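Researcher: Please predict.
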Amino acid sequence: MATPTTPLIVVVTTGGTIASTVGADGVSSPTLAGGALVGAAAAEAGVRVRVVEALRVDSSTLTLDDAWTVVTAVHDALADPDVAGVVVLHGTDSLEETAYLLDLHHDDARPVVLTGSQRTADHPESDAPANVHYALWAAASVTGVVVAFRGGFVHAAGTAKRHTTELDAFTAPDGPLPRVLLPRADGPWPRVDVVAGYPGMDGMLLDACVAAGARGIVLQGLGSGNATPAVVAAVARAREAGVAVVLTTRVPAGPVATTYGDGGGGADLAAAGAVPAGRLKAGQARVLLAALLRAGADVAEGFAARG
């Protein structure tokens, strides 16, 4: 039985598969309200729960404004000193981005735990109840912003969805990454695009991003962060137009290394003005770049501090 000394956890719900049921047409959509997602998990985890429904959407549709709504809901929850921690129930498609945005703005000692599910709430073998139970337990036990799935957790910075259907959905392939703490900022989010590199690529996609009004571009390079001479020239044009360019790699693990040159390698891209993202992959690199631009912070310094 819950008592006043039982930890109080705020559960922020946003929709996603964990809040979804399958309709008569065989298509799933987020239909469940916040309270229905917790069920018996609070009593089983030995915590009290307060539910806040921030959103009810498919996470693939989330904008940075939507993700900031989640950040705001978490900060509002932690304004109550009686709250021991926060759990965010989130769709898995963009969970890694929201988790990192939370991490960039989390300066509280209390934990924030994100979880979701790979199977809908009405699936006969749904992973939702077990993940909610574990996340509630973790929110009274761990520190920092973490992603909890299948009885384990990884820290937000560097985490990525590793499989489309397996229940052990998230991993941090490069281990824990250094934290960057940014001040809260107001105003509109800048447009930041992600461009995936491929062998023989020209500069058209980067030029199109600049023409569309991007203030930042994340270039997902090949190997350790390489491209072509045409892409190097497009990066230089983007930088001349005042657009920040950050270089990542499409390889699942390992850092960007600006060591190859003379033909479009990482050294050439860096010389043209691209900022290496280190071990941060494209999705979270986009979040950091957008947050730095929104805050008016130095992009190169922000990524160097991240490590």
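Model: The chain has a mean pLDDT of 96.
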